[in-house]
Amino acid sequence: METPGAGSPDFSESLQQVPEATFYRFPLVPVHGVPLMKPIATSWERIEKFQARPDDLLIATYPKAGTTWMQEIVDCIMNEGDVEKTGRAPIHVRFSFLEICFPPPVPSGIDVLEATASPRLVRTHLPYELVPESFWQQKCKVIYVARNAKDSAVSYYHFEQINKTHPDPGTWDEYVVKFLKGEMAWGSWFSHVLGWWNARDKHDILYLFYEDMKEDPKREIRKVMKFLGKDLSEDVVEKIHQHTSFTAMKENPMTNYSSVPSSLLDQSEVSFMRKGEVGDWMNHFTESQNKIFDEEYRKRMEGSTLTFRCKI
Ligand code: A3P
User: Is 290 exposed, middle or buried (CB count within 10 Å of its CB: 0-12, 13-18, 19+)?
Assistant: First the structure.
């Protein structure tokens, strides 16, 4: 079988050509009630009509849930632990970002996907309700990764500081309120994790948790292998485990986003591979922020069987 995602065109060069001001802090525009960055909202019709293929593999997450980590694990599994193959290109080239849209000459996620040979590796931050219908019609496999709300908020706050396409996150105090209201790109964490949770038995969806991956990475790697129908030896599982550790991925230029220009992703003070921990929220939430958060959390998650761990 052809290496999945091997046929995706490398658009890295075009990213280098874009003038700095082009990427600057896009406003959010609601699409079916979900705030998305303006270039995505403007192209929504085309995104909605995207034609999935049956062998497309989709990784879906709310931002900062461990998307990149899962992408690297999946690529390693697909390539049976051959890390030379996974080192063929940066992670954002190996997996196409379904809904992403930048001004020309950078191709949109859909432009890239249409030019990619099957089988394609796709990632999205779209809430379940906004995923193009063709993924369900084609019965595509989907891996969803969820991360506890407090660590997601802390990670997203730092990411929005360094990712210059996102709106300015403001102060941490303002951000906690914004996060609870879902006023950030891709909308509410609550609606996202619950929407995908409620859909998990309707389609071929594997729903995983960042905290479980941290607790026992090999156990979670085996779950993904099973889901993808791959039977790999324990030696290969160990190799994948090592290759996808936080330390290894932080050093790896194919996973740490160092090839993205700093005008778009400024890693001079905060790295994309920032901490990679469960419970970092405890270093950021004040007592009163925590109280407000917990109260809202209880209301929003009431009645759901979905539970998270904020410590392991
Ligand atoms: P932190 O900001 O808490 O460090 P995404 O890929 O969805 O944008 O998620 C990024 C978050 O996942 C960051 O969290 C990043 O450090 C963490 N991450 C990436 N690779 C990881 C790994 N191999 N192990 C643990 N965490 C990882």
Answer: middle
